[in-house]
Structures are given as structure tokens and as C-alpha cells.
Amino acid sequence: MTLAVAAFAAFATLPAQAQQPAWPSRPVHFIVPLGAGSGVDITARLLADKLSQKWGQPVIVENKPGGDAILAIMAVVNAHDDHVLLFAPASTFTAHPLLHDKLPYKADDLVPIARVTNTLIAFGVPTGLGVSSIKEFAAKAKAEPGKLNYASVTGANDLLFAAFLKTQKLDVAKVPYRNTVDAINDLADGRIQAYVGAYAIMRPRVQAGKVKVIALTNRQHAKSLDAIPTAREAGYPSLEFDGLVGVLGPKGMPKAAIERIAGDIKEYVADPGINAKLVATGQIVNPGSADDFAKDLKDQRDTVAEIGKTLGIKPAQ
């Protein structure tokens, strides 16, 4: 057998997976469970532009809000395609076991790929409400039981605020929104009196003087918003919760693809131009590997489980 024939025979015996084209071999889709203009949407679009240039394939951001993020998750799970990925705040799905008796997917249907940022999660109120701190909001709610309303991002942030209201014995009603970005207009106009969600979508109303952010839920103090305390700094550690954002893919995602995505995201968020834009839109840049993201997801699920205990909600089996 000649050397050339032997080489060909060896190649023919390689596993099929080894002969697959390098990832990505076609357009990549980032499925976002929130509407356009949300913090995660802004982040996904900034990265999509750069990644499409590096990968030589279009990176398409698709917004699928509603359904408590299940619409977006199932779009990824049902695609059975390692080019269709979930780009999401972890808080939209880590609370699912507390919110649904049955889920159409299993936790291991999605695998962590990369940690991207920590969205700054803000506790905002209408400027006209006349409160400047969590303590003042709580005092007003106690003085006017049943008269105040709130909205929040569906998922863990929603449960977080509900647990805060319960522990503080505050009678504040929730107003549901299919797309919580729409709640910002109502907050600015004073039709709702509190909102817990990404600072990015509040920022234009804050700059216009219509909304005041009285605290951030993140553990880390935001240097970009130095005058705003964290909830813990304000004396309310029960409202501490990180806005963890990352990318997840379908079960069976190739390891090489996972490592490439995480590495390329880390490279681009470190770019001064992109980094500055992310910080300006209310992000703490915090890239990490699949293992880093998996650890943080476990920590958040543990925190959510404790919130569930406070609210008396048992997770689905």
C-alpha cells in the first residue's frame, strides 16, 4: 500500500464528526427572550455585528418575547441545530421550576456556552412619586396600601420583588406585561409606581427626568452609576440579585464550537469600543467560559430556590 493510499484509508476511518465542517458553516441565530431595546437585546446586537465579521457568517438576532421565555427556549430546543443559540438573562429561565408545574423542556436540553455580562438590574420609580430610596418607597407603600402598582421582568426578578414585598409586608399589586419594555412608558407616566428590570431600558427615561433609579440589585457596585447604591448598600440585602447574561446551546453542542464562541465573545467584549458601549448601556462586562457560566447558573438557581421558600412555592419535580 502506497503512502497516499494509506493516508486516504486512515482518513476514511475517522469518525463522521471529525469530518464535519468547522463551526459555523451557516448563519448563526441568537434567540433573545425579550423585546428589542432590552439590555440583553442591545448586548446581543453589538456582539452579532462583530462576530459575523469574524465568523464569516451572518449572525441574526431574533426577538421572541412572551410565554415567560419558553417561546425562545423552545425555538432553540426544537431547532436541533447548533447554529441556533439562546442569548438570554439567566433570570428568565432559572425561576421556571417555581413558576410552572410542567415544562416542555428539561434543564439539560440547554448547555452553557459563555458568560457575557451582568446586566445592571434597576429598581426604578416615577420621578413624580417623590421617593429617593427603597426605604422611602416602602414607607409610601405602607402608608397607601393597595394603591401602588409594579411591573418587573418575568422570571427570577419578578419573584425577587414579590419576596421583598412579602418580607416587608407591603401591599403593592403586580401589573402583567407581555413585553415588559412596554412598562417603561407607564412607569414614566406614573401609571405604575415601581419597575425592576434592566437599567438599559430605563436609561432614556432617566435621562429625560421621568424615572428615578433608587437602587441596583447587583452584588457589585456599578462604577458607571456610582451615585446609585446596591440594594445591600441601601440596607435591603433580600433584593440582591445579579443580572447574569450568557449564551446557551442545544444538547450535544460540539466542544470545539463552545470553546470558540466563548473565546471570541471574551475577545470582543474586551475591545475598548464595545466595552465602553456595554458599560454605557448598563452592563458590567464579565465574560467567562462555559464552566464559569455553569457555576454561576447553579448559584442563581440556589438563590431562586431560597426565594421560592420565602414565597412558599415548591419547585416542580
Report on the structure:
The chain starts with a helix and ends in a 6-residue tail after the last helix. It has two domains: 24-119 and 243-311, Bordetella uptake gene, domain 1 (D-Maltodextrin-Binding Protein, domain 2), CATH 3.40.190.150; 121-239, 3-Layer(aba) Sandwich (D-Maltodextrin-Binding Protein, domain 2). It has helices spanning 3-12, 39-55, 70-77, 96-99, 134-143, 156-168, 183-188, 199-207, 255-269, 272-280, 290-311, and strands at residues 28-32, 59-63, 84-89, 110-119, 121-126, 148-152, 172-174, 194-198, 211-216, 243-250, 283-288. Residues 3-18 have low confidence and may be disordered. The protein has a six-stranded mixed beta sheet, with helices on both faces. A five-stranded mixed beta sheet has the order 7-6-8-5-9, with helices on both faces. It is built from eleven helices and eleven strands. It is α/β, with parallel strands linked by helices and 317 residues long. Helix 6 packs parallel to helix 11 (290-311).
